[in-house]
Design the sequence.
């Protein structure tokens, strides 16, 4: 009680210090809580959205010996199931695909569903709902799909006839409805719903059902119910939950979402941890005299330790409580931003805050734990203060700067190991989707750079301050020494800045490179400005008609047939092209061997059974120009014929078919081959094609021309799809933009944390250097010079952070790009190393602004310091 | 630069470097008025080191703070080189600190992170002196205080006496008219203290600088040419030890 009272009085007396400590804790806990509450919200809306695609059935119980066999049930079994905790409803159900002859004609397969109308009322609604109440005898309800498919109407009687099953019944359609929840099994499946007893009668199978369906109070309890059922019934039944399966499949997505938010919440906690130590050490240093007095009147180490830790915990109590509530508010903004950022790619539905008590308790407890952990260091420091030191102040021992620390070698080693990991393990990441190597190497490379800069801080700070010498003038010598001597503090501050920047530069480079590459790819591989897909197909000569449409400069038809080669694993996509017009749309094509492309196309036009083959396929088959290749060509009727083709040239690139730009496993081992479209009838059994590629007149807007084409062609075809390269580009840009938005969102967060960190560290720096600032003022330093001293230091530390971040981000991106290029050597295109100059400029400007803003208040405090106060000895 | 010019123009009496006229500083503590300094009028001359003595609470520190322009008087005026500096603007005060007043403190108050050379060079840097001149003056001053062989040492690597000698060199750096020393030997043993005082006194005399030394130590005070005695904020007398 005594300690608590003393601590409370100390807090009351030193309000500004107390406020500073509480602010540090509040911010850290708020970011942590915000990220966690936000993650709950994201997870919840993701799961809600995911589960909304399923019905109300949470669990299906079927016969374990064979799920197709029926399950024997009675009321007692249903009651037993209903008595299991979390089970809200249970009903038998018959679900079977059956073939019937409607009204004696046709051969139709539809899903026959038999329901227990009383129990099934718990599983959702039917529109109109009262129809289900009338579902008895030979009355049925059908879905819109069945009505459309079999041309059935409300009030009609339909004859269900199946001589094999011995069924010959007439059923009356009560209504055609849209089923919600319970029957949304297959949205495109024709469905006929009858009373279960009617179906049982139909098949002479009383008390038999295909399955028993259960409704459970929450998806979180499905697993518990399954375990309980297993305990009771053992392996007698099969327990299947479509929802659980979907959740399992999407678990990695949820983990990624949570993981991304958790990274930043952990970062916030680390920052908080260090800030608590820094601020509390400052508190202790300012209170040395009090502690000395306590010690001189007999306080033990334990009592001094407890005094400081109790005070820290009081700050923690206030900070963690405010922080947790502030985090809830913060999460609202986070969710709004996150939702907006990814809206162009996907929607998570309505993102709302989920106040999970466990999350809130975790956030509060984590805050307290961090405070307790961090509080130990100043508490131990307080126990080491001697009485002598307290009453006869000595200058803080300043040792000579290590020009280069030995950890320099560690930094280099970390850099090399990070680079090696990316080089050795990172290659397959594009194919396997395993990004662990890149994360590991990013961490190692960033850590290596931090250690490297830390170890050579003397030269680093000297270098930066020399660059700014004209601005810093007399402050230069002091700033560079402060930075180099306060190694740990400087390193912590620039690390806070660097971490966010590394990620933003990496992802911005990725976005910039892929945007540029995709733009090129779209131009090269679609080649054309507009792709038209028509249904039904039309004679390829339709291209001459298309050419008459205003704005169209060139048109070429296209038809693709996938061929196998006997004895080979890969396939050849035989692309039928018009040699007359193809080069007008794709002028950049060149041959890898054989005659020039114009000549090769001339041969293609005038000689049947000649092809231009993919060089890679020829290499695999050990074939060259002039050789023959036998392809198993598929006719439109499905028959396959082996046909010999004479290879007239080899090419590397296949325009018009983006899917063949890779020949890596992910896209299937398919290579291309060009053949004249004049052989289409002979080889494929048709002269009709579905695809035309168009080149728009250069001066015209391709989207406008596309819209005009759509307007003209829509009445001619049942269905028509047009896509312009520009739109595709825009789509990709919007995906990249969304991706970037998410990255910026996290970077914004880390910048805020960095700004707070810089601000607090500079406040502490000013507080600790009160005496120095007093001396400098006594020697005639004016306000501007004092401002330069504080702001200059913050700016230089931020610049070091920016250098580490930008350098690290670009280096990791360079390695990553290199690995993709060398691993996926089959890429037809090059991934250029693009430096996102604009982003680097924005980040640098933002970083400097942050440093200026964050150090403004401490700098102001420094200018306001009175010399008398600064030089006074406590 | 302009105020430096003003100062030289306004300098009426070259001998008098500092003059206080009815200088008072009162504090309010609750309803009570504390007279920390009460109507002190005194003249300090160039080349005549002066000590200020008095018991605790006599007003020594208040007097030093006021003449060092670290505090504002309640009434009275302060003239430095004949110019009334009592209510100067902060810009003019900064200018005075750069060119006219040098400070020496009890606990040396050197900048921890700078070497002896850099500490002495600092006031010259702040005043915007060119590099070549800075280097020359710093070397000469460190030689004057006998620290030519310790120029690249950090304060923590120097003894108390050495640190105070660096502080003296720093105070002399900008050729001030007046040096204010607050217990300059308070943290030193008597032998070292006397040695440091000798350097300080000789330097001021050689350069015709006004020196005010606030001290408790009678022996140190007796090394100066003149001792002023303060009690309860009032100037109660003065002696000339050497005469």
Sequence:
């Amino acid at each position: 009680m005594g300690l608590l009272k003393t601590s409370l009085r100390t807090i009351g007396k030193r309000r500004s210090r107390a406020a500073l400590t509480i602010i540090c804790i509040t911010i850290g806990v708020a970011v942590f809580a915000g990220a966690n509450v936000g993650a709950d919200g994201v997870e919840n809306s993701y799961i809600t959205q995911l589960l909304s695609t399923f019905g109300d059935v949470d669990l299906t119980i079927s016969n374990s010996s064979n799920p197709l066999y029926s399950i024997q049930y009675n009321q007692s079994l249903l009651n037993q199931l209903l008595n299991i905790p979390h089970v809200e409803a249970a009903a038998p159900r018959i679900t079977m695909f059956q073939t019937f002859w409607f009204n004696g004609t046709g051969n139709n397969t539809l899903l026959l569903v038999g329901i227990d109308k009383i129990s099934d009322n718990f599983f959702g609604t039917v529109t109109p709902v009262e129809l289900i109440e009338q579902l008895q005898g030979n009355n049925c309800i059908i879905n819109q799909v069945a009505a459309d498919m079999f041309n059935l109407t409300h009030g009609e009687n339909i004859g269900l006839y199946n001589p094999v099953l011995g069924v010959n019944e007439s059923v009356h359609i009560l209504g055609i409805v849209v089923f919600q929840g319970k029957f949304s099994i297959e949205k495109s499946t024709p469905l006929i719903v009858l009373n279960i007893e009617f179906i049982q009668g139909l098949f002479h199978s009383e008390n038999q059902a295909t399955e028993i369906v259960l409704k459970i109070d929450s998806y979180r309890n499905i697993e518990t119910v399954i375990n309980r059922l297993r305990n009771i019934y053992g392996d007698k039944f099969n327990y299947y939950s479509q929802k659980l399966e979907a959740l399992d499949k999407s678990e990695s997505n949820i983990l990624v979402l949570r993981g991304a938010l958790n990274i930043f919440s952990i970062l916030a906690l680390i920052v908080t941890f260090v800030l608590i130590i820094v601020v509390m050490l400052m508190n202790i240093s300012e209170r040395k005299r009090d502690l000395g007095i306590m010690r001189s009147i007999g306080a033990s180490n334990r009592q001094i330790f407890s005094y400081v830790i109790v005070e820290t915990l009081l700050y923690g109590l206030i900070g963690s409580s405010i922080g947790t509530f502030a985090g809830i508010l913060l999460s609202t903004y986070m969710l709004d931003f996150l939702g907006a950022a990814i809206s162009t790619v996907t929607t998570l539905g309505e993102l709302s805050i989920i106040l999970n008590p466990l999350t809130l308790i975790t956030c509060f407890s984590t805050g307290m734990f961090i405070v307790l952990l961090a509080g130990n260091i100043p508490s131990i420091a307080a126990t080491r203060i001697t009485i002598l030191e307290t009453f006869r102040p000595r200058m803080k021992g300043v040792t000579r700067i290590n020009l280069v620390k030995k950890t320099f070698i560690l930094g280099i080693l970390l850099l090399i190991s990070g680079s090696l990991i990316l080089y050795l393990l990172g290659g397959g990441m594009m194919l396997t989707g395993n990004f662990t190597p890149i994360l590991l190497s990013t961490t190692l490379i960033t850590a290596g750079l931090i250690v490297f800069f830390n170890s050579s801080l003397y030269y680093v700070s000297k270098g930066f301050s020399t660059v700014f010498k004209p601005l810093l003038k007399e402050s230069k010598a002091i700033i560079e020494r402060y930075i180099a001597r306060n190694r740990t503090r400087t390193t912590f501050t620039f690390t806070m800045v660097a971490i966010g920047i590394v990620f933003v530069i990496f992802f911005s480079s990725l976005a910039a490179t892929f945007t540029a590459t995709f733009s090129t790819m779209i131009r090269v591989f679609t080649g054309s400005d507009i792709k038209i897909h028509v249904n039904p197909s039309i004679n390829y000569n339709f291209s001459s008609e298309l050419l008459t449409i205003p704005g169209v400069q060139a048109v070429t038809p296209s038809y693709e047939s996938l061929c196998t080669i006997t004895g080979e694993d890969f396939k050849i996509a035989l692309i039928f092209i018009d040699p007359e017009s193809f080069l007008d749309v794709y002028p950049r094509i060149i041959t890898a061997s054989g005659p020039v492309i114009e000549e090769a196309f001339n041969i293609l036009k005038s000689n049947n059974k000649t092809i231009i083959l993919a060089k890679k396929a020829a290499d695999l088959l050990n074939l060259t120009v002039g050789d023959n290749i036998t392809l198993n060509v598929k006719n439109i009727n499905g028959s396959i014929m082996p046909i010999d083709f004479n290879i007239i040239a080899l090419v590397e690139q296949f325009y018009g078919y983006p899917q063949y730009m890779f020949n890596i496993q992910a896209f299937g081992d398919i290579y291309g081959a060009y053949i004249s479209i004049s052989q289409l009838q002979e080889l494929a059994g048709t002269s009709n094609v579905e695809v035309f590629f168009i080149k728009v007149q250069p001066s015209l807007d391709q989207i406008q021309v596309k819209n005009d084409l759509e307007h003209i062609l829509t009445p001619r075809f049942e269905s028509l799809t047009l896509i312009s390269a520009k739109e595709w580009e825009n789509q990709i840009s919007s995906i990249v933009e969304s991706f970037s938005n998410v990255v910026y969102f996290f970077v914004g967060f880390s910048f805020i944390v960095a700004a707070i960190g810089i601000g607090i560290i500079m406040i502490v720096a000013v507080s600790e250097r009160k005496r120095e600032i007093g001396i400098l003022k006594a020697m005639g330093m004016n306000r501007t010079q004092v401002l330069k001293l504080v702001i200059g230091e913050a700016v230089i530390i931020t610049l070091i952070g920016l250098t580490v971040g930008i350098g690290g981000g670009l280096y990791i991106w360079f390695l990553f790009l290199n690995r993709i290029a060398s691993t996926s050597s089959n890429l037809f295109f090059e991934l250029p190393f693009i430096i996102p100059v604009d982003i680097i400029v924005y980040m640098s400007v933002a970083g400097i602004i942050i440093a200026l803003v964050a150090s403004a208040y401490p700098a102001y405090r420094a200018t306001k310091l009175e010399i008398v106060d600064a030089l006074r000895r406590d | 630069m302009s105020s430096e010019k003003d100062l030289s123009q306004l300098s009426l009496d070259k001998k008098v470097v500092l003059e206080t006229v009815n200088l008072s500083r009162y504090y309010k503590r609750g309803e009570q008025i504390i007279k920390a300094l009460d109507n002190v009028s005194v003249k300090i001359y160039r080349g005549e080191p002066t000590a200020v003595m008095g018991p605790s609470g006599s007003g020594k520190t208040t007097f030093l703070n006021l003449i060092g322009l670290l505090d504002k008087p309640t009434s009275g005026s302060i003239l430095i080189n004949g110019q009334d500096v009592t209510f100067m603007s902060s810009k003019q005060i900064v200018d005075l600190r750069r060119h006219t007043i040098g400070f020496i403190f009890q606990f040396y108050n050197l900048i921890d992170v700078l070497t002896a050379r850099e500490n002495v060079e600092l006031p010259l840097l702040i005043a915007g002196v060119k590099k070549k001149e800075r280097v020359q003056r710093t070397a000469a001053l460190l030689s004057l205080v006998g620290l030519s062989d310790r120029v690249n040492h950090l304060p923590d690597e120097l003894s108390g006496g050495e640190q105070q000698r660096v502080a003296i060199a720093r105070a002399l750096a900008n050729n001030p008219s007046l040096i204010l020393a607050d217990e300059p030997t308070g943290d030193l043993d008597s032998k070292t203290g006397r040695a440091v005082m000798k350097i300080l006194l000789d330097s001021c005399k050689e350069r015709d600088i006004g020196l005010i030394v606030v001290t408790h130590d009678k022996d140190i005070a007796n090394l100066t040419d003149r001792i002023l005695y303060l009690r309860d904020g009032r100037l109660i007398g003065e002696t000339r030890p050497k005469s």
